[in-house]
Amino acid sequence: MKLVEYPDAEMMMMELADTLAGEIKTALLMHDRVSLAVPGGTTPGPIFDSLCGVDLDWANVHVMLTDERWVPESSERSNTRLLRERLLTNHAAAATYIPLYADAETPEEKLPELAAVVKDELPISVMLLGMGADMHTASIFPGADQLDLALHGDDLLVAMRAPGAPEPRITLSAKVLKSAMNRHIVIVGGEKRDALERARHLPPEQAPVAAILNGTTIHWAER
Fold first, then answer.
1. Cross-strand partners of 64
2. How far is residue 95's CA from residue 98's CA, in Å, rounded to a whole number?
3. What share of the chain in percent tops pLDDT 70?
4. Cα separation of 40 and 82, whole Å?
5. What pLDDT, on the 0 to 100 scale, is given for residue 42?
6. 77: burial class by Cβ within 10 Å (0-12, 13-18, 19+)?
7. Where are the alpha helices (DSSP H) in the chain?
8. Is the pLDDT confidence value at 220 over 90?
9. How far apart are CA 38 and CA 107, in angstroms?
10. How far lies 145's CA from each of 35, 108, 140, 141, in Å?
11. Average pLDDT of 74-88?
12. Quick one: pLDDT at residue 165?
């Protein structure tokens, strides 16, 4: 694990966008097509605002989420909706989006077909993740119903239901997260820095993010 500290979050978001863009460009020199996996939520929004304006070969970039809430894109809780508004615009509008949601009552109904598409994108070229104060990453939550499968199984995608999560989730498994060629986690604030330090000394069953810390660059700013 490598920890990079920044004077403030604004600078971190801009520099991290530059880092991701550089890794995408490097991957495109070696491959005809590359994949970028990113989180939802509010934290990465400023990164997306910068990254979407970078002039690179977006037509050969496939973008996906690391996890998604099982809600349609019309929902305000849809991570896909956030991506379309803040990442898949400007130059990045030329990228291909790989969805983790399909129209069905439950994620289990669509897991096989969604996983088949994700398989073609592996290993993911560049990955950005977040982390919660409860030490979850993607939608691999402590106490989730399929935690063991997500951490230790061979499935690429896992349907998850967790305490406090109002809807089912679908998440890339730890196996997929760990296989990414370039992997970053972005966190802001003292609470998450403290959580990160705890996670370094806990098993993944208690701190799921611990499963992927080895080989990951952590980007942190106080505020």
1. 37, 98
2. 10
3. 100
4. 7
5. 85
6. middle
7. 9-30, 45-51, 79-86, 111-119, 147-152, 174-179, 190-199
8. yes
9. 20
10. 29, 13, 10, 9
11. 96
12. 87
